[in-house]
Amino acid sequence: MPRADGRANNALRPVRLTPGFVDYPEGSVLIEMGQTRVLCNVSVDESVPPFLRGQGRGWLTAEYSLLPRSTHTRTAREAAAGRLTGRTQEIQRLIGRSLRAAVDLESLGERTLLIDCDVLQADGGTRT
Length: 128
What we know:
alpha+beta
């Protein structure tokens, strides 16, 4: 069955990265995969969680949010409900674990990288 956009069944969506998309965070990138758009901002905190104090290495943590009108129908912000859904927790953990495996935490010193990933527009899967 052909895809609506004409891609072959085994073809990836076109990927575009726009670094420095937001001016104020220490790092920022807009990631576009087809019509899916995710904004990731990185902030640096000059401390680490208590379990890492005095060890001379850093930490990385991630937060994920699907913005209310990023899909065909509006979904309420999870913060308004007072708790994260299991799906959001799963995606946050996946982002954090994946990036911790790729980043040299020793080179950070006792700093924490806070990654905020916000889905601006979801077109297909947002877990990839």
